[in-house]
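Most newcomers find our protein records easier to grasp once they have seen one. There is nothing in a record beyond a sequence line and a structure line. Getting from the letters to the tokens is the skill we practise here. An example says more than a description, so a record of this kind follows:
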Amino acid sequence: MNIQENISLKSFNTFGIDQKARFFSSAKTLEDLKAALTWAKSQNLEVLVLGGGSNILLTKDFPGLVLKVELKGIQVVSESEEEILVQVGAGEIWHEWVMYSISKGWAGLENLSLIPGTVGASPMQNIGAYGVEIQEVFQSLQALERNSLEIHSFDSKACKFGYRESVFKHELKDRYIITSVTFKLNKTPKFHIEYGAIKETLAEKGIQELSIKAVSEAVIQIRESKLPDPKKIGNAGSFFKNPTIPIAQYEKLKIQFPEIPGYPNEEGIKVPAGWLIEKAGWKGVRLGDIGVHEKQALVLVNYGNGIGKEIMDLSEKIQKSILEKFGIALNPEVNFI
């Protein structure tokens, strides 16, 4: 176990925020994880678990131990004629795992191409895009309980998945470290191309015969056209969740804003947060070194030397603005540290 002191976290978060960790360690094995947690406990230190750093906003230096999870490995657990179960280490890069699954002809993850972050973070957030969410391809996960250092298994029900939600963001927050995720993928594809511009993009590319590779390439093309590359402009992808409002409230807003988009779900009507932010005049707004992206209002950006507190303040101004204009409360998808 290698413990480093006073380490800049700039290269470990996609916003590119330059805050420091008092102590830093990376865990490549389960033993590394246990040793680091034991050491932190002996020093009475708070622990921040880091994956790809693609869903956090650092607003200050971290006074404890930042523990980067780098557990790797992809292993077929079982397979039938129709399905295959694959266990993947929490430290694997999400997009690389998606590309690997596509190269093997395993279907189910193609709509989730180019999402930043690691495999371990995917069930925590119940990540989703273009009509597909993790819970649809999820079988189980293994996680290390921080106090007992015991490994526990969680099935889909135990994870309590919701829209960008899981039990690990609420009741079990900061109690477990996910070490691996097992996915249930299909050998025969079930295509989801109705959402977003996938169908149009496939047509533009002249795709005659659907394949998971073609869908993945279409998703990548769409994401690259709308979302800034974190290596060039600091960002954490979608900053806010898409809010769901009661049908009655949506109908009322429809009178005032006839063009307001809405998508029915079990709780009511989901309204795109990006549309609300753009309609409120925030798209492309720049305040010094931070701002709202010019192509996608849902993305807050760091143009270079912005600090987390500035981005947090901007997000609060946007929330206040949306509440005043539409009566809708926006909730961040990004975790503030």
